[in-house]
Amino acid sequence: MERRNFLKSVAVAGTSASVLTSCTSANQAAGNEFASGHIVHSVYFWLKEGISDEEEKDFLNFFEILKTIASIHSFHVGKPAATTAREVVDNSFQYNIIVTFKSLADVNTYEKHPDHLSAIDQYSKYWTKVAVRDTELL
To answer: Are 93 and 80 in contact (CB under 8 A)?
Structure first.
């Protein structure tokens, strides 16, 4: 049984599921950036070794341009957290962005947006690797 159908059947069967349903509805009503059906676009950046502080500061302007694109629901910039070193943890990147979108159509608009493409052309000189992870929330 698919997870979504399972959750619906549980909602009919028990009161705990009705609590889950009401929490989901409340999150969506409040404009929660992590609502069911939203897309979470996580992008990790590995910068070139030896770039100056000035170049790194210039690189951060890349994010300032991206976050102005209208199809974005929310935009966050981060650096690796100082979590406990474990085999499954990869903190080798220098920056990441977490961007949420309300739909796949919004992601597609963002990916093809002239400001997005222009910013990549302008700032890609600063990175050696980029990894993208897209997730559709349940």
So the answer is: yes
